[in-house]
Amino acid sequence: MNKKLIKTIIILLIIIVVIYIFFSIKSKREEIYHVGILSGLDYVAEMSDGFKSKMAELGYFEGENIVYDLQKTNFDITAYQNILKKFIKNKVDLIFVFPTEASLEAKTATQETNIPVLFSFANIEDVDLIENIRHPGGNITGVRYPGPDLAVKRFEVMKELVPRAKQILIPYQRDYPIVASQLKVLSPVAEAANITLIELPADNAIELQNLLEKYISSGIDFDAIMALAEPLFVTPDAFTVIAKFAYKYKIPFGGAYMMIDNYGSIFGVNINIFETGEQAAILADKILKGTPAGTIPVISSESFFQINYNVAQELDVIVPEGLLNTADEIIH
């Protein structure tokens, strides 16, 4: 083979490589990702804002190279299932979903697909969501909600606010999947503090109202009302029932922070909703760049402590100075 022919072949190979690289880059630039977002609880709906904001920082610009299908509902299993069917039918590139029960539905719905699932605001304890933190497995990964840890922190705060408390009422959504794991870690802590936890499961605000009225009529007494990580307490109708009851009888209540119609809980130990959405975006970036979701380790949200000083005063609760010093946010 003469030198001229070899030179020609080399030039042709270079041209082919350049063309391949050019069209690969062009194709990548023109690729538009479709992400379905299932916001399953109004209380944490801001998470999708944090997610989108961070995705933009990472180079995903809505309407240019990424399209979001944001679907909102508020603790409705049937709605979850219908929304997920829509995402699957539309062959989205990723499903971002929260909270726990919606995440479980997403895992089940996508079993026979190759659509990755990214969960957030979801407990992983005692639910069949992942294999383990380091290797979640299947098509799923996400941001863990540290429910059991926060349940204990909420209890410790309530104990400081109401040091003479002997009985604490715990209202929660009946049969909610992550309540048991929280009570499992909370019960021995309460027992050690010589405090009785009175469980109050209910299906909805109406039943909750009736149960609270029965407690009063039967003389059952409690010194505080505390929320676990579950949807009943933070659903507007049920929260209003609890708040009106607590204000009427001057009973301190908190755990999850909310304000509705001038009724507010004293404190919340939770996560920063917006920042958790940002954490999820970092994982989404890895998934969209080709890393299988099930191989990406699950990360955890950090706790965030808020206290409403005005509500405390209204409910005749003296907030210790030490507790105020540890708050991430004091609301006046």
Query: The CATH topology of the largest domain is what?
Result: Rossmann fold
Q: Helix proportion of residues, in percent?
A: 40-55%
Q: Would you list the SSEs in sequence order as H and E?
A: HEHEHEHEEHEHEHEHHEEEEHEEHHE
Classification by helices and strands = alpha/beta
Strand order of the largest sheet: 2-1-3-4-5-13
Number of domains: 2
CATH class of the largest domain: Alpha Beta
Please compute the radius of gyration using only Cα atoms. 25 Å
Question: How many E strands?
Answer: 15
Kindly report the average pLDDT value. Answer: 92
CATH superfamily of the largest domain: Response regulator
CATH architectural grouping of the largest domain: 3-Layer(aba) Sandwich
Low confidence ranges: 25-29
* Residue fraction in strands: 15-25%
Q: Report how far the terminal alpha carbons are from each other.
A: 86 Å
Output the number of helix runs.
12
Task: Describe the main β-sheet briefly.
Answer: 6 strands, parallel
Task: Provide key terms for this protein.
332 residues, alpha/beta, elongated, Rossmann fold, 15 strands
Could you please describe the fold and organization of this structure?
This protein has 332 residues and is α/β, with parallel strands linked by helices. The protein folds into two domains: 29-145 and 273-302, 3-Layer(aba) Sandwich (Rossmann fold), CATH 3.40.50; 148-271 and 305-331, Rossmann fold (3-Layer(aba) Sandwich). It has helices at 3-30, 47-57, 77-89, 100-109, 147-161, 179-192, 205-218, 231-234, 236-249, 273-288, 309-314, 321-326, and strands at 33-39, 66-72, 94-98, 117-122, 140-144, 167-173, 196-202, 224-226, 253-254, 259-260, 263-264, 267-271, 299-300, 303-308, 329-331. The strands form four sheets. It has a six-stranded parallel β-sheet, sandwiched between helices. It has a four-stranded parallel β-sheet with strand order 7-6-8-9, with helices on both faces. A three-stranded mixed β-sheet has the order 12-14-15. A hairpin with a 2-residue loop joins strand 10 (259-260) and strand 11. Helix 2 (47-57) packs across helix 10, helix 3 (77-89) packs across helix 4 and helix 7 (205-218) packs parallel to helix 9 (236-249). The longest helix is centred in the first third of the chain and has 28 residues, at 3-30. Residues 25-29 have low confidence and may be disordered.
